[in-house]
Amino acid sequence: MTSDRKPDVTPVGLFDVAGNRMVDAELWDAIAEKNLADWEAEWIPELFKLLQALNRKGVERRFWPQSRHWDWRDKMKAIEGRLANQSFSIVCQDMTQAMMTTDVTKRAQIASQKNDHLVYVDFLEAAPWNRREMTQMPPRFSGAGSILILAAIEQSKMEGFRGRIGLHSLPQANDFYANKVGMTDLGQDAAYQNLRYFEMTPEQAEAFIEKGRKK
Amino acid sequence: MKIEVTKDWCEAMARQEADVEVGAGLIAADPIFNGEAAHDTTFDESRIALGRFVHLMRRRDKLSLEALAERADVDLAELMSIEFDAHYLPESRTLYQLAHTFKVSHKKLMGLSGLTKPKDVQYVEEAVRYAARSESIETLSAEEQAALEGLISVLSEK
Lengths: 215, 158
What we know:
The complex is a heterodimer. By secondary structure, chain A is of the alpha+beta class. Chain A has helices at residues 33-56, 72-78, 132-135, 144-158, 174-180, 202-211; strands at 9-16, 21-28, 85-92, 95-103, 119-126, 141-142, 165-169, 184-189, 195-200.
């Protein structure tokens, strides 16, 4: 299920929104048992509380977070032992703040890089308390999404794919991938539950990295 | 695999990310609490009726989710999924426990859930109709009470 290997740790930082300050965090190049335990013991109960609140407010189900069913333990079981898949997690204050899995078997669709290899982001999710759409409140920590996208880009470079990545965005996150990350929106994909497919070229990858260097 | 990144980069990107969502990935392609891998929309309406039935009965009996889970001896997370999520395919045992608790037909709850294919679809259609008449508010209104009585009637052993 999860690798016994101790994950490589990259020191990163997340923005503590309430405290208006950066806090130390770690990017792990794995989803370890600790991350899955956090998901089960902390994410799920928090998610249910939020769903209950949405329901009591009369919010229609179609507006509930689409990732509410994701079972990260099953996701990890599904890719166990597969060399084509990689997982990442972000830990801050001894708690998992976001997780991602990637796949290197997919090919690019943008004309300029058609059929070239890329790193496909299978799943990316932030902890419930880091999601404005669920709490209708400012997130506890922000920045995990960008760090995970950077990790996917770096994985792509290491694989020789020059930073090319692709993903299907959840509807609430289209704005992030189109406008903040700067990926190309290839529109709704009927083969993928009509989610919008976004792809990044090597040039867009460099622009994304450069964006964080500008003060 | 370690990556090259500075705290300044993290801060610059975090500040622009604070007001957006970041999730990506197929919604229903994974096995969801052991139930949704092959999501069949055929049963969405009847599962909504099942969820509404459990919800209304719980409120009629003034039970919290936790209290009903304890009384029926079912898992709290599964109970919440049944009430709130029409995609969720419940466990057979859970439906048996709920049918026993609410004194309705286990077979009919199985039919509503999609775990079995009911020969008589009329009660399913009626249950869906009754469920559609109820709305979620704190106390049962007269209309909800009537809808619930209708649901009990069609889901009881005859």
